[in-house]
Design a protein that fits this description.
With 681 residues, this protein is an alpha+beta fold. It is built from 24 helices and 16 strands. It has four domains: 88 residues, no CATH class; 168 residues, no CATH class; 186 residues, Beta Polymerase, domain 2; 186 residues, Toxin ADP-ribosyltransferase, Chain A, domain 1 (Alpha-Beta Complex), CATH 3.90.176. 56% of the residues lie in helices and 14% in strands.
């Protein structure tokens, strides 16, 4: 016999009769589930109602007291001005907000917690009452509620005054009539008045009729308190449910009304599906309405998100790893513990649970999108040329299409960690991966501190945690800080401070040739510029405008392509170092290259550049030399030689040259031409 998979997880024969029975079973199971959800809500609502009643009662009694005390001072030309003269209505409103808003927030939080605990998603089981949506709702609705109740109270008093004036009653007489009914709304005031009139018509003496009317007004006061408490606690509770489901990532909600309620409006709404946003506009149908929300559909657990992230990382990691291997090999760096480059699904799930505790207002979907280290690499570079190598790696990653998304430089900061953590985005795979930059000594300390960190992470004793943190900080005492490491990546903010993110994207697409063409456009006259626009298109004019904004960053625009492409250029101190080497005052080229690659030099050009620069030439054949754009190569010094892309060169000569200034009236530019000759691999 053919079978179907039953929604309640047991095999189902496919005969029509049995299908009908199973369908009935499913309907009954659904009914039991919704009844249980409604029963839980009713119990929670009763508790919330009892919580807010004392505060509503306290505020209404405060209002009555202020109004009765002010009846004798009632003055004015119209009923509206008389009402305003009775009391300080603004003070009454403020007092109402102070009493009611905290209670609304507490009830809203209970509603959110209730659904999150019943539909627990691993560690994300607490509602975030500090979320902007929760705070905004309480502030807005709390203020509206107080204003509405106050307006109803003012209208009730105004109706009595108007009726009294029309009947020709004196102000003292009107004040006596108001005393038992101040604080009631207009409809309730009318009910008390009609009750009193009926008693008089039935022959009840005036004094006895007044006492009975006052007792009736007292019952209406209590009823008004309970009605407000019941309605507002229900509204706050269901809004808390809605926001709680939203924090869990639920998209749609189902309305569940009292299955036994005779009210047609409630029954018409029962079982309807609303989007999360639309559900915010569903109000209690009447004061005794006890409709609640349940989740419609399913939500994915963290393990599902973690597995998806892991699969995506495994698919695209090989291509990124090939790039990292090639780049680190070319620049003289290495990759440490490459076998751990992929974060496991279990590790991601634990991280998501931890983030959920830290950010309870975020859904699991949002948290999963924020995981940016599913693939991670640890780059180890020599201490001596650390800054230069890190810049070269970053440059090569950029040239291969990877975009630097975020970077944090911990070097020079007093703490348990020293290093650089950078996040790069791969547009092709839409994968963000992490690159940590360290020296060999730094990696050793990081690994040593990791063991201590694991102890601190699980400890619940603050004194032990503090002692372990102090030990991790102390382990860095003998660390040799690479020269310029503390400034790495920081100069980007200065370099790009005058341009937008969109313009940075354009800058990063410039090739060496396009850069030189844009620079030529800037130095050209008006007619030549028009010819260049005609030849190359209007984009060159737009690029030139961006370049002019970049030139605002430093004096005279004294720069070369190296600043744009690699952000490690040549400053006055490096220029002087090469001159000293030429004069024989510095014996080793290592010193010159070290000065050239430090970020201290790079930073100086932004603030004190005089237009000095250095051009490097590689000897090609016997006579021809080609200018070397240092940003395109891996260059370092080693034992008195210059290493370019793993080839050894020596400096054959250095010539000083004076060029025209960048701008009219600017300073002449002094340039050192450094000629290199290959001497072996």
């Amino acid at each position: 016999m053919n079978t179907l998979e039953h929604p309640l997880n047991y095999p189902m024969p496919a005969s029509p009769e049995e299908i009908q029975l199973i369908a009935i079973d499913i309907i009954l199971a659904k009914d039991r589930s919704t009844r249980r959800a409604h029963r839980n809500y009713v119990l929670m609502h009763r508790k919330a109602e009892r919580k807010i009643v004392p505060k509503i009662k306290e505020w209404l009694e405060f209002t009555d007291k202020k109004l009765r005390a002010g009846l004798s001072r009632m003055r004015g030309q119209t009923p509206a001005t008389m009402v305003k003269s009775i009391a300080d209505w603004e003070k009454i409103r403020r007092h109402g907000e102070e009493l009611i808003k905290p209670e609304l927030m507490e009830i809203l939080t209970e509603g959110g917690n209730a659904v999150m605990e019943r539909r627990m998603v691993e560690k994300q089981a607490r509602f975030d009452p500090i979320g902007i949506e929760a705070v905004n709702w309480v502030n807005t609705h709390g203020a509206e509620l107080v204003v509405e109740i106050t307006a109803e109270t003012m209208q009730g008093i105004r109706d009595v005054i108007t009726t009294g004036i029309q009947a020709g009653k004196s102000m003292p007489a009107i004040a006596r009539e108001l005393r038992p009914i101040v604080g009631l709304n207009s409809r309730q005031v009318g009910a008390v008045s009609n009750f009193h009139t009926k008693l008089i018509a039935e022959g009840v003496v005036a004094k006895e009729a007044a006492k009975k009317a006052e007792r009736y007004a007292g019952r209406l006061h209590r009823r008004r308190t309970m009605t407000i408490a019941r309605t507002e606690s229900a509204y706050a509770l269901t809004e808390g449910q809605r926001q709680g489901y939203g924090q869990m990532g639920v998209k749609n909600l189902e309305r569940v009304e009292d299955p036994d309620a005779p009210d047609d409006d409630c029954q018409m709404n029962n079982g309807r599906i609303y989007s999360l946003a639309a559900a915010s506009g569903v109000l209690p149908a009447h004061p005794n309405c006890e409709g609640t929300w349940v989740m419609s559909g399913k939500i994915k657990p963290p393990s599902s998100y973690a597995n998806e992230l892991s699969s995506h990382a495994k698919k695209y990691e090989p291509g990124i790893t090939r790039s990292m291997k090639g780049i680190t090999s070319d620049t003289g760096a290495s990759l440490n513990k490459l076998e751990f480059r992929l974060k496991t699904a279990g590790s991601m799930e634990r991280k998501m649970a931890k983030l959920a505790q830290k950010h309870p207002s975020m859904s699991m979907e949002q948290i999963a999108k924020g995981i940016q280290d599913t693939v991670r690499y640890t780059v180890v570079a020599p201490t001596k040329n650390f800054a230069s190598i890190v810049n070269q790696i970053d440059l090569q990653l950029s040239r291969q299409g990877y975009k630097l998304k975020k970077v944090t430089n911990y070097y020079g900061k007093k703490g348990p960690y020293q290093g650089i953590n950078a996040k790069y985005y791969d547009p092709r795979s839409k994968l963000t991966f992490e690159v940590q930059y360290h020296t060999k000594q730094g990696v050793s300390i990081v690994e040593k501190n990791h063991l201590i960190y694991e102890k601190a992470r699980v400890s619940t004793n603050p004194e032990i945690v503090e002692a372990l943190n102090a030990q991790m900080i102390k382990n860095w005492d003998n660390f040799v800080m690479p020269q310029g490491a503390e400034n790495l990546f920081i100069q980007r903010a200065n370099f790009y401070k005058n341009v937008t993110a969109a313009e940075i994207e354009i800058i990063q697409t410039w090739s060496d040739d396009s850069y030189l063409m844009i620079r030529k456009y800037l130095n050209a006259g008006e007619i030549e510029r028009e010819n260049m626009v005609h030849q190359f298109g209007i984009q060159i004019k737009k690029d030139a405008e961006i370049m002019e904004k970049l030139f605002l960053t430093y004096v005279d625009g004294a720069t070369e392509m190296t600043l744009y492409r690699g952000l490690y250029g040549v400053a006055d101190d490096t220029y002087s170092a090469f001159k000293k080497y030429k004069a024989g005052e510095i014996a080793q080229i290592d010193t010159v290259i070290s000065s050239w690659t430090t970020n201290k030099s790079t930073m100086k050009i932004f603030s004190e550049a005089e237009g000095n620069n250095i051009r490097f030439y590689l000897k090609k054949g016997r006579t021809h030399t080609q200018e070397l754009d240092i940003s395109s190569f891996s260059m370092q010094a080693q034992e008195g030689e210059v290493i370019v892309n793993s080839h050894r060169f020596k400096i054959t000569r250095i010539e000083e040259e004076t060029l025209k200034p960048w701008t009219e009236g600017g300073k002449p530019r002094k340039v050192l031409n450094v000629y290199l000759e290959e001497i072996g691999p």
